[in-house]
Amino acid sequence: MTACILPVVIVGAGPIGLIPALGLQHYGVSALVFEEDRRLSIDTKAGTIITRTLEVLDRYGVVDDVLAQSLRIEEIGEPARATNQRTLSVWTGELTEDTRFPFVINIPQHELEPILQVLSTSGAKHPTFFTKAPGTVIGPTDDINYDPAISGE
Ligand SMILES: Cc1cc2nc3c(=O)[nH]c(=O)nc-3n(C[C@H](O)[C@H](O)[C@H](O)COP(=O)(O)OP(=O)(O)OC[C@H]3O[C@@H](n4cnc5c(N)ncnc54)[C@H](O)[C@@H]3O)c2cc1C
Q1: In terms of Cα–Cα distance, which of 27, 7, 13 is closest to 117?
Q2: Could you tell me the residue range of the domain that residue 143 belongs to?
Q3: Cα–Cα–Cα angle for 19, 20, 25, nearest 5°?
Q4: Residue 65 above 80 pLDDT?
Q5: What is the overall mean pLDDT for the chain?
Q6: 45 C-alpha vs ligand 1 centroid, how far in Å?
Q7: 74 lies in a domain?
Q8: 107-138 as b/e, with b when 16 or more CB fall inside 10 Å?
Q9: How many angstroms is it from 30 CA to the middle of ligand 1?
Q10: Per the domain annotation, does 58 fall within a domain?
Q11: What's the pLDDT at 150?
Q12: Does residue 1 form part of some domain?
């Protein structure tokens, strides 16, 4: 019997699916991403990426691509809603000795996802997505015809 290494299947092409896809690619593991919407998100949804996630993106070698399209934030705070008065802020610069990324970034989810998709596909040893057309992602009812022999496994 011939051993066959199957790809990791990831359900959902949101950030929580796409970042592990990048990680798997980084470590040379095949992954297939299934997205029921047949396209990436068109909604803003998640907007803030914190320091620890930036460290993960750095480990996978993609943080510069994300930072290039993000707004860097070094003060986190909000006015008290009842009085509209300024409240105490958190200054991320205090983290300088703890992380290479002493800041958070803002990037709308619908702008982040295409970056992650391109990065997880380009240079991949194995295809991460089975794209049907630009901007679309194969859905769970599509035939994949995944052939380990063809993909080099
Ligand atoms: C207005 C707004 C602002 C927000 N701001 C922030 C923020 O600043 N920071 C933050 O961390 N979070 C924020 N959130 C929450 C944000 O939505 C989540 O953090 C983020 O979307 C989680 O990503 P995800 O990949 O887990 O889920 P999603 O982005 O929801 O992605 C899941 C994907 O899986 C697909 N899917 C689901 N089931 C299946 C299935 N059975 N088969 C195939 N595909 C499937 C869905 O279609 C979807 O594309 C905000 C949400 C809203 C609405």
Answers
A1: 13
A2: 8-151
A3: 100
A4: yes
A5: 82
A6: 7
A7: yes
A8: bebebbbebbbebbbeebebbbbbeeeeeebb
A9: 23
A10: yes
A11: 47
A12: no
Whose CA is closest to atom 51 on ligand 1?
45
SS3 (DSSP) at 9: strand
Number of domains composing the chain: 1
- Average pLDDT for residues 62-81, to the nearest whole number? 92
pTM of the model: 0.82
User: How far is it between the farthest Cα atoms of the chain?
Assistant: 72
Q: Is 34 in the pocket of ligand 1 (CB under 6 A)?
A: yes
The Cα 4–Cα 62 span in angstroms is 30
CATH number for the domain harbouring residue 112: 3.50.50.60
Nearest to residue 41, comparing CAs of 106, 107, 110, 108? 110
CB atoms within 10 A of CB 147: 9
Give the ranges where 60-142 is alpha helix by DSSP (H): 63-67, 109-121
**What is the per-residue pLDDT across 2-56, written as a single tens digit (0 to 9) for each?**
677 777 888 888 999 999 988 888 888 878 888 877 778 888 899 999 999 999 9
The amino acid at 123: G
Q: Which two tokens stand for residue 134?
A: 């630009």
Contacts of 83 (CB under 8 A, 6+ apart): none
